[in-house]
What does this fold into?
Amino acid sequence: MSDTPSETPVTGEQRSYSGLFLAVLAGAVVAAIAGLGWSYHLSGRLTNAEAQLAQAQQNNQKLASALDETNARLKVTTETLGHSLGLTQQQLETRAQQLLRRQEQQEAEAKRLASAQAATAQQVSSVSSDVSTVKTDVGGVKTDLTQTQTDLKNAVSQLQTMRGDVNGQATLIARNHDELEILKHKGDRNYYEFTLSKGQKQAVSTVSLELKKADVKKSKYTVNVYADDKKIEKKDKNLNEPVQFYTGKDNLLYELVVNSVDKNQVKGYIATPKNAPVPVSTSGQ
It folds into this structure.
């Protein structure tokens, strides 16, 4: 027997297991290498992602800070705007009330003007009617005046003309109150009526008269005339006779006429020139 160990023969089954192991081992090595590569790749991507995340967080912080600042500004702006809007709203309401009051005032003024215009139009219409009436009346007055002037001329022509006792000049006399009114309207002289009682001195015009005697049966009378501090006696004068005398610094001619003679009383008038003095207590007619 020899000392060399005997070799065990390798069977086909053993070769099959050995090849499979090698194949598995090779696959594991490849897988490990692939895993290492993938791990390295993932590690790079993770690092990059973490950097991006940090950057994003930093950006978010900046955005948050900017947002807070913006919100603060927006709050201030909102409050200011709200205050301004509040004031503007109040101003608008005040202005609207002012405009409303002004409109009401304008409407009231328009109504007042319309009423005034209507009243004025009515007054104008009334005045126009009155003017027409006045024109008609004026026409009637003119007609009446013409008729009156005609009647006055006729009445004057019927008055009696007598001569005065001083200058003998013919003069118109009135025999009663109605005829005296005609002479007054003629307007040539001033006329003063009187009623003179016996024993009484009475002022007439700018002179004084005193009845001394009244003869009813003969229609005669006697009277004293006091003028310019003188006494002039007019004795036994007739009814409706112009009794004349001069008086005043201009030596004006006065006429005295007695229209009625009663017991102890006479009635008549004194006629004076238009330029004669007017007495204080007696008015000229």
About this structure: Helices lie at 12-158, 177-186.
